[in-house]
Specification:
The protein is of the alpha+beta class and 107 residues long. Helices cover 35% and strands 11% of the residues. The chain has helices spanning 18-30, 33-40, 66-69, 84-87, 89-96; strands at residues 5-6, 13-14, 47-50, 74-77. The longest helix is centred in the N-terminal third of the chain and has 13 residues, at 18-30. The protein is globular, with a radius of gyration of 15 Å. The relative contact order is 0.14.
Amino acid sequence: MDYDLTGLEPSLRSKVNADAVAADSLDLLEGGSPEDAWTRLRHDAVFLRAERGLLDQPVPLYPDPTPIAQRMPVRTLPGTNHYTILLAEAGAAAGGRGRTIRPALLM
């Protein structure tokens, strides 16, 4: 995570380019990438959705999970954001519930 952050504690901030993230998000949300990935799934999958946004904003990265839920079950994990859903113990434990998670889609 050091390469994602700049500044000194407690004033760390993201080094990502907001315009690049926005452009990439458009492709992920509106382009063919999700559709292509869903059609290649060979096993049942559950979409694990973080409750909060990419940088811990109150609005999640996927504010309306309805389009995803039409293709696979969606589980929103309370108290997680884009990073903590996979990297923090609470997010990983809630997502796995004692099972090994093999990410089908990493979005």
